Amino acid sequence: MYFFKEGYIRTSAENFSTEDINNYYIHLTNNAIQKNAENYGQFESGNILPYKDLVEFLPKEKVDDIWEKVKEISYMTFSSVKKKINQNQRKFCFELFGLDFIIDNDQKVWLIEVNDNPCLEMSNPLL
Asked: Quick one: pLDDT at residue 108?
């Protein structure tokens, strides 16, 4: 399993609040949603931060712990379906997956979803 170390963090165009649960721009960070927000790109280009910039908000040790947890959850996820992937035993092939995580207030990592056809849109110079 290969982990691309230059991951990124999607941000929202609005400050988080539980006051307006219907405001998609607060709660959904998908680029397909965010690119329509009035404040899109106001804080970060394309509402995306490089993963390495997480150290501006959290201690490096905590960022390292988060990265290890992401890898652990990813490994467990793919281990649970390994018999379903490449059932024809093809050699010299690969498949690209996108895994979406959320980090809560306690810096606990949660897997949201696995995409077998992740968006590769170049919405930001980082991408």
From this structure: 94
